[in-house]
Specification:
Blueprint lengths: L1 E3 L2 E3 L1 E4 L10 E4 H7 L5 H4 L2
Antiparallel strand pairs: 1-2, 3-4
């Protein structure tokens, strides 16, 4: 969790396809699910 505008927010560490772990990016959860609404995070987590 991070703080954004004095509120708790969740960020996801995303390793995009064809990118290295070093290129992984922190993406706000809300932005991610808006862009990829059908992505199943539960089956993709390790």
């Amino acid at each position: 969790m991070v703080q954004r505008k004095n509120r708790a927010a969740v960020d996801l560490l995303v390793q995009w396809q064809d990118c290295s772990q070093e290129e992984a990016q922190w993406v706000p959860y809300e932005d991610f699910i808006k862009k990829f609404p059908h992505f199943d995070l539960e089956t993709r987590s390790n």
